[in-house]
TrEMBL record, chains A, B:
Organism taxonomic ancestry: Eukaryota, Metazoa, Ecdysozoa, Arthropoda, Hexapoda
Pfam families, sorted: tRNA-synt_2, tRNA_anti-codon
Organism this protein belongs to: Macrosiphum euphorbiae (potato aphid)
Domain Aminoacyl-transfer RNA synthetases class-II family profile: 149-470
Name by which UniProt lists this protein: asparagine--tRNA ligase
EC number(s) stated in the UniProt entry for this protein: 6.1.1.22
Similarity-based family: Belongs to the class-II aminoacyl-tRNA synthetase family.
Alphabetical keyword list: Aminoacyl-tRNA synthetase, ATP-binding, Ligase, Nucleotide-binding, Protein biosynthesis
GO molecular function terms noted in the UniProt entry: asparagine-tRNA ligase activity; ATP binding; nucleic acid binding
GO biological process, one term: asparaginyl-tRNA aminoacylation
Length: 478, 478
């Protein structure tokens, strides 16, 4: 049986195998195959009519740069209009500006685009991001947003590279979790959509429809931190880059209901210093890599959106970042009278306070450390000589304020047990406590909002313009 | 204001900055710094007592290999037992077997591990995966599962490399979606956990608690395909690697409620041949890269779990894979009488049929193409000369059967409109139809179950042992 041969297989399809990958605009601009005959496929963007020829920019999304296609007038199909998809075959030659262009021998239009028939983006027009956002399914066809998507991809690669080079192991923290974010109430709960399925799965102990499927309330994750702590206690250095969720009725330019977080956790760290080093190593090497590999496209994007020169990504590269204690930060803020909400010592910093501190630091990133314990979650470790303060850190950046939050975690079994009991989570987080019982080590970690990172890097005003399919209160299109 | 200098910053902490990254077991085994003095931190695994010394395997999770630490008897703390966390400082020397080992000058135990006090894994014992799974938070400390986690990380990197090298752009397809999987009912629905928030957000048009937050029912994604189609129509080649969800009451060894999918979509593909090439290029280059970079750990893992030699990952590397049509596959299956469920022509293949076809093909991957249209979703494109068949493909593999499904998508506006109207989704998927209206192109794509890919590669029997935090009916721990 095992060596039986399959005799009756149909022949493989006999079409020729010229995959499209061999001729993207990106490859052509990278390899500069002057004089070669190539076939390209993409969409028509800017068109310029001259006496003898028409010049069409072919955009295939592989790069922000486009390839100019020169089409003799007698070879122009009527359907070749702005926005249409087409194929051009011809020879690559260098034009007087020393740029490669394709002199077309044949043109084949696949799909026309009649702007008057409801296409939301007319040629040579720019639109407000809010208008563009109303057409999510067409938005990637704009120069601005396709550029953003490529840069988002590059940012995500740079993040993964930074961690892989330093022996961090990527963990997929779960989206579904029985952890409700310490009861803060800002979570989404899930249940099967099918009522029949719910009925089928209800049991004596779990009669609520919300509990039937998983034998308990189940939520969308707000953070993978606790799950990563499990992993750091076996693999030493771990990280995740995945979706997290917040059920908040906030429509601010800095919040989404579904957003991505870079979270990292490291064992054998028990002090703020090493935590700060790990955070600034992450942000600085990632931005450095991006500026090296994608400066062209970053410049292109920032140019289109009119990014402020004050918020310069180079500021993220220069380490070490400045450090200020929460108390000192309060001293600074107290002297100012320019705030809508005045600073109250012992309370969280408002967004305007965060942005002021960044400005005060010359628009460079700044760490705020040594927070009052009441401002940080129960699992944050107290500073040994000053029990009212904890080993917690916020990294503040231009445009967004808080980009990153981190802390050393409470690793003392008895102290954590008491804290869990105080917040009423001793039963629910028994597993979390038990991590401290066997082969216990100190761990520290941090979380960086991925979309906010893009906002800092590119000076994007609204977070909804940094993600392919933004979800926010009253909005979950597609 | 802008040039104001922050004069009152506290000095940076003055601790020395020797980050742990410089001395992981992985780095030491890679760089072989014989004769150097090093400090290592990790967990004690196997211990062997000799006359003069004790030999302890130090495991820090950075690699499946461990570093032997030699400790003179007079320097052994009583708390140094199996499972404890400790630090060892000493000189790296080569032992008679030419392996590096650390001759310890000092030992510092951080956290003890008293097996008798409830630690689930005793030294030198192996446990059934089902037992190990009951201790999810401790599971990463077993040799088997920490190895799995590292290989999962490697698989994910290899997948991203394959796509990046071929100019695919990574898109984060949304987890929250208004798309309910064509009404198949196997979806999870979400709502805010807080009843107050729900009340606050309810509106005239959306009075159900399930609709309040997002102005409509919102589900967890079952596939990013349609979202990727948007993107391929601007960026040509896109992919995603992220979580997807299925609310099915299935406890099989091949199903999870939350699982990862590799999904790719390419514009300008209108035939099965190029689709098959893209799929087999993905699986073969990914497995090739893994066998090149991680053969040691793959061998180690397969050895511990007793993987079958019949299911050899090398079979994934050799392309092209065999191809059989659905009809021919039925011919083959019809001749067999060994099935629990006999094959019925025109119906889906059962798991045992899939596995039989793979076996029949010498335990090598095999494509099944040209499916009856009723067996595939409405968006699958019909084969022009035979309207009862569609351009769809399943890739069948050892151990799991279907690893991958793909199709050419219906790109004709009028045909798709009729199909949408037939399934009652014309309103809901208006945006999806409109993709075909402007600059229309053909697209094709596929989805590979990420955990099943691990099952094929490593011969893992149960999918629950391929993911850090498995979720399945009645189980969502932590």
């Amino acid at each position: 049986m095992m060596n039986m041969k399959l005799l009756s297989l149909p022949c493989r399809y006999t079409l020729s195998r010229h995959l499209y990958s061999s001729c993207s605009v990106k490859d052509i601009l990278n390899t500069q195959p002057e004089g070669c005959k190539k076939k390209l496929k993409g969409w028509a963007k800017a068109m310029r009519k001259m006496k003898e020829n028409i010049f069409v920019d072919l955009d295939d999304g592989s790069t922000h740069r486009r390839l100019q296609v020169v089409i003799p007038k007698n070879k122009i199909p009527a359907s070749l209009t702005y926005g249409c998809s087409f194929e051009a075959e011809g020879v690559l030659v260098r034009n007087p500006n020393y740029q490669l262009e394709l002199v077309a021998e044949s043109i084949n239009v696949y799909g026309s685009c009649v702007v008057q028939d409801g296409y939301p983006f007319a040629p040579r027009k720019t639109y407000h991001p809010e208008y563009v956002r109303q057409h999510l399914h067409i938005r990637p066809r704009t120069a601005t947003f396709s550029s953003l998507l490529r840069l988002r991809d590059k940012l995500s690669s740079a993040v993964r590279n930074r961690f892989a080079e330093d022996n961090f192991i990527e963990i997929n923290a779960p989206v579904l979790s029985s952890n409700d974010c310490e009861g803060a109430g800002e979570v989404f709960a899930v249940k099967p959509d099918s009522e029949n399925l719910v009925k089928e799965m209800i049991s004596k102990d779990h009669q609520s429809p919300m509990e039937a499927f998983f034998n308990g309330q189940t939520y969308l994750t707000v953070s993978g931190q606790m799950h990563l702590e499990c992993m750091a206690r076996a693999l030493t250095k771990v990280y995740t880059l995945g979706p997290t969720f917040r059920a908040e009725n906030s429509k601010s330019r800095l919040h989404l209901s579904e957003f991505y977080m870079i979270e990292a956790e490291q064992a054998f760290i028990d002090n703020t210093e090493e935590l700060l080093s790990s955070i600034e190593k992450t942000t600085s090497t990632v931005v450095k890599q991006l500026l090296e590999k994608s400066s062209d496209e970053i410049g292109h994007y920032r140019n289109i959106i009119g990014a402020s020169k004050d918020n310069d990504p180079v500021n993220m590269v220069n380490v070490p970042y400045e450090v200020i204690s929460y108390q000192k930060a309060c001293d600074v803020l107290e002297k100012e009278n320019c705030f809508k909400n005045s600073m109250i010592r012992g309370k969280p910093l408002a967004k305007e306070h965060e942005l002021f501190l960044v400005k005060y630091n010359g628009q460079k990133p700044i760490f705020v450390v040594d927070w009052p314990k009441d401002l940080k979650p129960f699992y944050t470790k107290a500073i040994p000589n000053n029990k009212s303060l904890v080993y917690a850190v916020d990294l503040l950046c231009p445009n967004v304020g808080e980009l990153c939050g981190g802390s050393v975690r409470e690793d003392d079994y008895d102290v954590l047990k008491e804290k869990l009991s105080f917040v009423g989570l001793e039963d629910k987080l028994h597993w979390y406590l038990e991590l401290r019982k066997f082969g216990n080590v100190s761990t520290a970690g941090f979380g960086i909002g991925f979309e906010r990172f893009l906002q800092v890097l590119l000076d994007v005003q609204n977070i909804k313009d940094t993600i392919a399919f933004p979800r926010w209160p009253h909005n979950c299109k597609m």
